[in-house]
Design a protein that fits this description.
Strand order of the largest sheet: 2-3-1-4
Number of helices: 7
Structural class: alpha+beta
Number of domains: 2
Distance between the termini: 53 Å
Order of helices and strands: HHHHHEHEEHE
Helix content: 40-55%
Largest sheet: 4 strands, antiparallel
Radius of gyration: 22 Å
């Protein structure tokens, strides 16, 4: 099934549009269900799950609207360039889920339904498999928020402690105070076996010189740290 000319409203064209939109919805729904599965028992946004379902439909609708017209494609790209997305995704995997939903919709909208279905199935199988493997190994992911005095080598000291007391870690963002006295940093960490965030919190307060530490597990509310994040 090739590109669809929406200028003709014959029965065959409408049937192809309906099939493409239905395929996009089914792939988006499957992606959302697997996202729910791997995040079961964890805090998650209902709006984000809904976005995974409708993201594929939007992608399919855009490709159907563009068709074979270069002018339409340029116009839609220009319109999308004016939109600024402000949602912060602390988990990089969430961004990949969004792209997967759009990719399925784009495949459906261009008539490559089999390619989209196979790609979506493979993506979901790999994600579910790796997630189950991480859970079996006892790896728990969390967002770490640290406030510490702004001093030379402070971040290097923090990194060295994270190498010792976290399985993996990645810096999400960093912000210095207007006065330059302290800085805040947000990290994505995978806690070692048996740690619920308390052990890492105590280490950073005692050895890194941190004044505030907050560990927010994916499966729970923020751990008791020192101070609130503003």
């Amino acid at each position: 099934m090739g590109m669809i000319d929406l200028g003709s409203l014959d029965t065959a064209g409408l049937r192809q549009v309906a099939i493409s939109m239905l395929a996009a919805w089914l792939m988006g729904q499957a992606i959302a269900e697997v996202y729910r599965f791997i995040h079961r028992g964890r805090e998650r946004s209902a709006a984000f799950v809904q976005a995974l379902v409708v993201g594929g439909i939007v992608g399919a609708m855009l490709m159907l609207a563009i068709g074979n017209s270069v002018a339409r494609g340029i116009g839609i790209v220009g319109a999308l360039a004016l939109i600024r997305f402000r949602t912060n995704l602390s988990n990089p995997l969430d961004m990949v889920f969004i792209f997967a939903s759009f990719a399925g919709g784009i495949a459906a909208g261009t008539g490559n339904i089999v390619t989209g279905a196979v790609g979506t199935a493979l993506f979901l199988a790999v994600v579910a498999g790796t997630s189950s493997l991480m859970q079996a190994r006892g790896v728990r992911e969390a967002e770490l928020r640290v406030r510490m005095p702004a001093s030379a080598g402070a971040e290097d000291k923090l990194r060295s402690l994270l190498r010792l007391h976290a399985a993996t870690f990645a810096l999400l963002r960093r912000r210095d105070s207007p006065e330059g006295k302290d800085c805040r940093s947000w990290w994505r960490v995978a806690l070692k076996d048996g740690d619920d965030g308390g052990a890492l919190t105590r280490v950073l307060l005692a050895e890194a010189g941190a004044t505030e530490v907050q560990v927010e597990l994916e499966s729970a509310a923020p751990e008791a740290g020192a101070g609130d994040d503003d």
